[in-house]
Design a protein that fits this description.
This protein is an alpha/beta fold. The protein has 12 helices and 16 strands. The chain is 43% helix and 27% strand. Strands 1, 2, 3, 4, 5, 11 and 16 form a 7-stranded mixed β-sheet that branches.
């Protein structure tokens, strides 16, 4: 066979394969559309790096030519990027509720989890939560715990008394920075404005510089106030995003003493997500115990006997009966539908008002 005939034959093979790829590509993107619909209903982000990595590793087993494996990794990564881009376009207009103003840490969390979504600000946690319950928004991103300040009781109570599900928890490191007006220099600063917690985290830095302090409801509101005052002697302690949102000048970065300060944000949705039964599942469960001796101890033992790792157990006043409490539990383990039913049944024998409010594969840092 001549070189010309071999070239023609190779091109015909490529044309035929490209035709098959086009059909399969369309089929794959139609499936991606269904995935996007599911993610919108369940309040899930488009990006899932762990699943993408696992998928590529699995698909490599089908490539026999070792020389081609590197190229196939590139092919799969490009394909998944196109799929995610399509999903983001489909989810354009997805509304995510948060409590606070632009530049607040909750706003930053939403931006990192759902970069394609419309961020909708509400005046407090309850109104943001209700916006999802009544269908105004698709999901809400609310803080449930801070490593420095502890639990966010209001959000825990909303979880107990409300109807939404937690479909993911994301850890946002809290970094505080010093911002001033555009014409300010650090030597000009006389006082700093911020939330009480932020000022406390940066107390050592503030004392070293001899700044006076002024408390504000949150860091983003403080940034807005410094912008509106336009006084170069006034600075704010806030996030990079809040400072940039209000056009302020960065004077010093990472001034908080506690560099491990982190806030856990939960994503609330009207629908409970499905999780893979083959991998460990993080779950959040709420219950009250019967007014009987040893009831709480019996409830705790159910988790161990069922093979689950009980990561945390917290109590909150139930508010409906004086000195009565509900319990907020975070656990981990294999949670198939059958195992879930067995766990709920076992707990119901010693507990009341048992409700599984959250399931997700892993907690993620954003």
């Amino acid at each position: 066979m001549s070189d010309k005939n071999e070239l023609q034959q190779a091109r015909e093979i490529i044309n035929e394969v490209d035709k098959q790829i086009a059909v399969l590509f369309e089929k794959r993107m139609n499936a991606a559309k269904k995935v996007a619909d599911y993610k919108k209903k369940n309040g899930l982000p488009v990006e899932d790096k762990d699943r993408e990595k696992a998928l590529v590793e699995k698909m490599l087993d089908y490539i026999e030519n070792e020389e081609l494996k590197t190229y196939y990794i590139g092919f799969m990564n490009n394909t998944m990027e196109l799929s995610k881009a399509y999903q983001r376009r489909l989810l354009d207009g997805m509304k995510v509720a948060f409590s606070g103003v632009k530049g607040a840490f909750a706003d930053i969390a939403v931006k990192r989890i759902f970069p394609y979504a419309e961020r909708v600000s509400y005046k407090n946690f309850k109104v943001a939560y209700k916006a999802v319950e009544n269908g105004e928004c698709d999901c809400a991103v609310l803080p449930i715990e801070n490593s420095y300040e502890g639990d966010v009781g209001q959000v825990m109570d909303l979880t107990y008394f409300g109807s939404l599900y937690i479909n993911g928890i994301f850890d946002l490191p809290v970094e505080q920075n010093l911002f001033g007006t555009k014409d300010a220099d650090i030597k000009d600063i006389k006082s700093v404005i911020s939330h009480k917690q932020a000022l406390g985290q940066c107390a050592e830095y503030i004392n070293e510089h001899g700044f006076e302090t002024v408390e504000e409801v949150n860091t983003a509101v403080a940034a807005k106030k410094v912008f509106e005052m336009n006084d170069k002697t006034q600075a704010v302690v806030c996030s990079i995003e809040a400072g940039e949102e209000y056009g302020l000048k960065l004077l010093d970065r990472k001034i908080n003493k506690n560099s491990t300060n982190t806030t856990r944000f939960a994503v609330f949705s009207r629908v409970q997500r499905d999780v893979s039964p083959t991998s460990d599942t993080n779950f959040i469960l709420l219950f009250t115990v019967k007014d009987e001796a040893g009831s709480l101890g019996k409830a705790i033992s159910v988790f161990g006997e069922s093979g689950y790792n009980l990561k945390t157990l917290k109590s909150r006043p139930s508010k409906d009966v004086i000195w009565n409490y509900y319990f907020f539990v975070e656990g981990e383990g294999k949670l198939t539908k059958e195992a879930e039913d067995e766990l709920i049944t076992s707990l119901s024998e010693v507990c009341t008002n048992v409700r599984l409010v959250g399931k997700f594969s892993k907690e993620m840092r954003i």
